[in-house]
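Form 7-S
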Amino acid sequence: MTTSYEELNVESNYPTPRIPPLAGLCDFEAAQRPGLSVAQCVEWHKRHHYLFCRLHGILTARVTAEPIYELKTIFSHHAYLFAEHATAIRTRVSEMREPPLGLEEVPHSALQLLCDEVLCAPTTEALLVGAYTVVSELCRSLECYKETTNPLADAPSVRIVRFASFELREISNVGYDALLGVRALSGERSPQHHSRDQLEEWQRLLQNCLLAAGGVSGQETQQSQELTPIFSATPYEFDPVPKRDARFHDSYNGGVNPEAFLYDERFAPQDKVLMLFYKRLREIDVPEMMASIIHQTPGKPWKFYRDMSRQLWDEARHAMLGEVGFVSQGLDWSKIPINFTWSLNLNTQLTPQERHAVLFFIEQGLMPRNGKRYEWEVAQASGIPLATLFQDFDWADEVLHSQIGREWYVPDFPNLTAALDYGDRCWSKVMSHWRRYLEQG
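Output:
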């Protein structure tokens, strides 16, 4: 049975004032805004896409050599979010009558220099200043896009821009707090590689890059600027050697065998939970290694970088699950030796493909009943709800990671067996170097 306008007690048949018009997207005044053409929208999107991709690459490249644990996890998280927003923009541009997409092109040389300078920042402080300056400007451009485009005609864009700007505000706040924290750690001392005056000069260069590019959006007047590289005058070199802060000690200590402990029936589930928390926290070495794969594997489809960044972030999150596990038990994890030889060996002894092979080989070993399911059962038997919850999600994540490996690693081989055999050989190659540490004391 239909309801008439008369029954709704409406004076005018169109539109009814009791129901939001235009699907609740906007009012009629906003819907008549001239906005942007499809071509103008695409050009603006491409600038956002370029910066999201560059920010993703910049933070990923710094995960391994950044010593501060909290920054490793922040960089892992933010890089993943940047990859997700870049993916959303790629999808939107593909819908906007734009073949070929041209998404790999540099939209403006000044934006390229801006990102190159941030990538080459010689200190953590400078990196944070540069990266989160770009984030702030990108957020401002997204807000401007939302206020400029027609909210009805370009509704799909408005949705992804609204979500991106929301997350970027949070990202910016975390980055700013991290910068304050780094400065507090260094006190009033000048950073090792630059003075305050040099940092201010560099920040002026970053602002001049934005002025020359007409802002992130390109909608502002492009101002002629003399842009002389400072940090990027020396090309960036990826540092594959993992760095850890002072809370991580005895980093070559491989005396603890978590698997042997977990499968030893002499120990109670409650005791084994502590080893599970240790295993999770130790997983910070996986982002340290995966960052090297992502950075040193150019030319892949964008989805490869997005998927691998998701896995990198998951592994960083697993480390934090272990951290929280120790805190929940009133234990100081910094008193425990947490080695880094896994990421160190893979990064310095193997090629990117060989590292991926080892990663996949280990993941597949976690899929049988005596793998992740067993860890979850141990947690469940312990009667510790938090441990059960953490292992439940850890197990789910590893199933996803196995699928990522099957999509991006296995196709390089004739079949799954060949892919696993290669991973086994690569892992054996790394294992053969362990005695060297013993010989060196």
